[in-house]
Amino acid sequence: MYITEMSEKVKEHVVKKLSVAQTNRDTQIRQMMEKLKEHEKHILEARQQREGKVAEVMDKMMRKMEDTLANRESHMSALKEKLKEHEKHVEEVRRTKEEIQQQGEEAPSTEASG
User: Fold this and answer.
1) Residue 114: which pLDDT band, with cuts at 50, 70 and 90?
2) In degrees, to the nearest 5, what angle opens at C-alpha 71 toward C-alphas 66 and 72?
3) What percent of the chain has pLDDT above 70?
């Protein structure tokens, strides 16, 4: 009987240890799952923030590119206008020079015949 009682006590002790170990494992698993859920939540928040920042940076970059393009077009228009004005001035100078040359050619011929 003594052996039977000891084996029962050992059996109870082992069962109790196994039960405590299982409870500890369940608790650890639950805690790990909670940590994983928190981590997943943190990752999702970080991803959303990053996507928001990426969208913000893209918008800013697009605005800057559009402004640069508008400035370039404005500058090109101003240069074209300046070039037209220069061409007009050059043409006026040519015309004036030709008129002066024609007047110069006509004046000596009238003096020579007189």
Assistant:
1) very low
2) 95
3) 91
pTM: 0.49
Structural element, H or E, at residue 1: none
Task: Please give the structure tokens belonging to residue 32.
Answer: 């790990």
3-state secondary structure 48-99: HHHHHHHHHHHHHHHHHHHHHHHHHHHHHHHHHHHHHHHHHHHHHHHHHHHH
C-alpha to C-alpha distance for 89 and 95, rounded to whole angstroms:
10
CA distance 43 to 48: 9
Where on the phi/psi map is residue 69: left (φ > 0), alpha (ψ -120 to 50), or beta? alpha
